[in-house]
Amino acid sequence: MSAAGWASCAQPTDRMPHLRPAGLAGEDNGESAEKTIKPEFFDKAPPTPATMQKWRKDTQPGKTILHPGVADDRDHERIHTYGRAEPIGVKVHEVLNVAPKSMLIEKAIEKKEAIYLSHKREPLSKPYVRGHDLPEELKEEGFGRPTPQDVAGDQTKELLHPRERIVPQSEHRLYVKSHANYEPGEQRRRGYSWNSKDGQVDPAQYRFGAAVHKGEKLGVAKAYNPTLDEEYKRPAVVVEQTLENFREVTYEPLGSVKNLGHGNRNLPNNHVFGLPSQRDAEWGVRECIGNYRDDEQQPDKDLGKSVRPGWRNISPDGKLFGVPSIRSDIPAPSLKSVADHQNYGDESGADTLLYPPRFADEGVTQGDFLEARTKDGLGSLFRSAGFDLSDELLDDAYVRAANLDPRGFVSVQSFRMALNGDVGEGEEGRHPQRGPCRRDERV
Questions:
Q1: What is the mean pLDDT of residues 237-262?
Q2: What SS3 class is residue 343?
Q3: Between vectors from CA 209 to CA 207 and to CA 211, what angle results, nearest 5°?
Q4: How far apart are CA 313 and CA 385, in angstroms?
Q5: Residue 210 forms part of a structural domain
Q6: Cβ distance 129 to 122 under 8 Å?
Q7: Closest Cα partner for 418 from 366, 375, 380, 385?
Q8: C-alpha torsion sign, points 89, 93, 94, 98
Q9: 299 is a domain residue
Q10: Could you give phi then psi for residue 106, rounded to 5 degrees?
């Protein structure tokens, strides 16, 4: 758009100047993908203050952890140790190495120990020496008199602790009959003589009582859990049907699927829920075309067109119906809304997307080169780009560039053409002061 056309349009107004605009405007704010992915290298957390360091937990391997109360204690750096020094006494090796190394050393140790009274009266591995001089007969026979064996001795011991012996059965039966002295766990036997129709009966091998068909097994287990017995029948318990249904749906049954209230649970294993997607056989392509001739399988004559007179849409040649995708037929709005997704012909095509311009990465479009600018703005732009433009050269190039536009507008493209000498000088161009310019010298 030209400068005059831009001046005639309403300028956008920032209705919320206190809010920061969204997005980036091309400035370098130091943010990149690498800094976002690696915050531990580029955006490290601030270190813990020294005043709070002692209260934090330190997990560094090999570091001594001190209590926060003594973290600021530095007296140990001056004295290098805690506690008090012990006087040098007996060494550890002197206590452990108690055995003499030789006979001379042993005699020397005995000589040193002989001066102590405890060594004289209480020698090691010997009785206490009181200084008494005992007769020789006491030293040989000992103290006291022996007890005569005819008065006491082994007889007293046997009375207190008689010798154990095996009691014969005949003696045991006498004690059972006289004193009822049964052995622990012994069955009382009354000496009955059992006879039956078959003869003599041995109580140890005969089972009294009614005849049974089979022996009892797992009696204790069945007493605790009657369901282990095959002949056991659980007694019927009469409860409310509503309560029983609630228990069946609420509680988890052992070894079976929980009833969710969807009907009968006693279903066969091959039961499938739901309705079949196809109850009856349906026609397919083969049934549709198998019974028709080739001419009957051709499309209808009125397919896609109207054959009824008076209802035909016959348009003149070259007439197009509908709205074009690119609305170049209407003027574009001066202020395009963000909700307006219509293309008015001022957007880039597929060729620009596949082959972007040279300065597209820097955010400069082709429209920026064709926008009308002032002479001072062009001079400042080209001098910032590194060109040494004098005022005479700037005036001359601006005048020749203004002659290219009937309205006298000058853009970056036209000023560059005038500066390169492409205006009125043929293919090579001419510089107003230096003469013709080569192509490798052009902007």
A1: 81
A2: strand
A3: 80
A4: 62
A5: no
A6: yes
A7: 375
A8: positive
A9: no
A10: -65, -40
* Contact assessment for residue 413 and residue 357, using Cβ atoms and an 8 Å cutoff: no
Closest by CA to 302, choosing from 293, 312, 315, 292, is 312
pLDDT confidence tier of residue 27, bands split at 50, 70 and 90 = low
* 395 within some domain: yes
Q: Which tens digit of pLDDT belongs to each residue from 171-220? A: 998 999 899 899 988 888 887 888 888 888 887 777 777 665 666 778 88
pLDDT for 423 equals 52
- CA-to-CA separations, 157 to 73, 204, 429, in angstroms, rounded: 77, 43, 149
Name which of 32-36, 152-156, 163-167, 405-409 the model is least confident about: 152-156
Domain count for the chain: 1
| Cα–Cα distance, 409 to 422 (Å, whole number) | 17
Q: What is the pTM of this model?
A: 0.25
Beta bridge partners of 117: none
d(CA 68, CA 54) in angstroms, rounded, equals 6
What are the structure tokens assigned to 381, written together? 């732009």
Both tokens assigned to 118: 């405890």
pLDDT greater than 70 at residue 76: no
Q: Which is higher by pLDDT, 401 or 443?
A: 401
Residue 368's nearest CA partner among 376, 360, 341 is 360
Instruction: Return the structure tokens found at 412.
Output: 């970056």
* DSSP track, 71-133: TT--THHHHSS-S-PPPP-S-HHHHH--S-SSHHHHHHHHHHHTTSHHHHHS-TTS-------
Any domain includes 399: yes
Cα separations in angstroms, 9 against 6, 331, 332, 335: 5, 13, 12, 8
| Mean of pLDDT values over 41-59 | 84
Strand partners, 435: 431
| Contacts of residue 248, Cβ cutoff 8 Å, sequence gap at least 6 | 259
| pLDDT tens readout for residues 267-289 | 777 877 788 777 777 777 777 76
**Two tokens, residue 358:** 């040279």
- Please give the backbone phi and psi of residue 90, each rounded to the nearest 5 degrees, phi first: -75, 130
- pLDDT, residue 441, reads 36
Q: Domain range holding 434?
A: 362-441
* Backbone angle region of 113, left / alpha / beta, with phi > 0 → left and psi within -120 to 50 → alpha: alpha
